[in-house]
Design goal:
There is one protein chain. The protein is an alpha/beta fold and 241 residues long. The strands form two sheets. The chain has a six-stranded mixed β-sheet, sandwiched between helices. A four-stranded antiparallel β-sheet has the order 2-1-4-5, with helices on one face. The chain starts with a strand and ends with a helix. The structure holds adenosine-5'-diphosphate (ADP) and magnesium ion (MG). The site of adenosine-5'-diphosphate has 10 residues, from helix 1.
Length: 241
């Protein structure tokens, strides 16, 4: 479980997060929705301890991480996999080498690495791509490789930052289905940041909306249409019930 308590963060005197309280439960798919520039990525970066808050606390499985020394942060980060909008694959490496990279860094033996890479490619439904280079793949396939790399160490938490932004609707839905599949199959806790309401409604167990630095909506996805928040309504206007 992840608990975020009264999280505040400003940049150059400009407040971005203004008291975020949020609990992320094991096994759920939580979608964090919000307009561009509201601090969604900043929030994720606090969970990964890439940023330190000005005020507030973050607990990962009961461990308060805002003041942890570097070596302990490294331990905590092992329980996370990250999928970014741009998968940031190394163009000079094959798909296999890209996915194997974190495993090599952790000193796994070649046989074990082969097994794990094969497994993670199966999980994201990619075949016969091990020897290809990223620029030989479509956008959707590159995204899958990014997901394969994120899950190869079996993280407890999988964080997605705008996973469907920039994809066409058909490809986006394939990635949505993949996120649902991984959450079911691997019992991974998924934290998905997006401004794509369509995608949010499809994958979320629970949805929170950040607006002006605070969480203004926190709802199970089933009751989203009953919510009165004006910003949420603006988002919902763009999709059919
Ligand atoms: N490293 C940084 N230094 C200064 N300002 C930042 C930094 N990272 C983010 N910000 C600012 O914080 C605000 C929220 O950014 P971000 O979390 O990226 O928004 P989004 O909700 O679109 O992900 C923006 O105004 C952005 O300019
Ligand atoms: Mg962002």
């Amino acid at each position: 479980m992840i608990q975020i308590v009264d999280l505040h963060k400003s940049f150059n005197g400009k407040p971005v997060l203004r008291g975020i309280d949020l609990e992320i439960r094991d096994g759920e798919t939580l979608v964090i929705l919000g307009m561009s520039g509201t601090g969604k990525s900043v929030l994720l970066k606090h969970i990964m301890r890439l940023f330190k808050p000005d005020r507030g606390k973050i607990y990962i499985d009961g461990v308060e991480i805002t003041h942890l020394p570097k070596k302990d942060i490294y331990e905590i980060r092992k329980s996370f996999g990250y999928v970014f909008q741009e998968p940031a694959l190394f163009d000079s490496m094959t798909v296999y080498e890209n996915i194997a990279l974190p495993l090599k860094e952790h000193g796994f033996q070649e046989e074990k690495i082969k097994e794990k890479v094969k497994w993670s490619l199966q999980m994201v439904a990619l075949e016969d791509v091990e020897d290809k280079f990223p620029d030989e793949l479509s956008g959707g396939m590159r995204k899958r490789v990014g997901v394969a790399r994120a899950i190869v160490q079996m993280p407890k938490y999988l964080i997605y930052d705008e996973p469907t932004t920039g994809l066409d609707p058909v490809t986006a839905d394939k990635i949505n289905d993949l996120m649902i599949f991984l959450n079911d199959e691997l019992k991974i806790t998924s934290i998905v940041v997006t401004h794509d309401i369509r995608s949010a409604l499809r994958i979320a167990d629970r949805l929170v909306l950040i607006h002006e630095g605070k969480i203004v909506v926190d709802t199970p996805v089933e009751t989203v249409w009953e919510n009165d928040d004006p910003v949420l309504k603006e988002f919902l206007k763009t999709v059919k019930k």
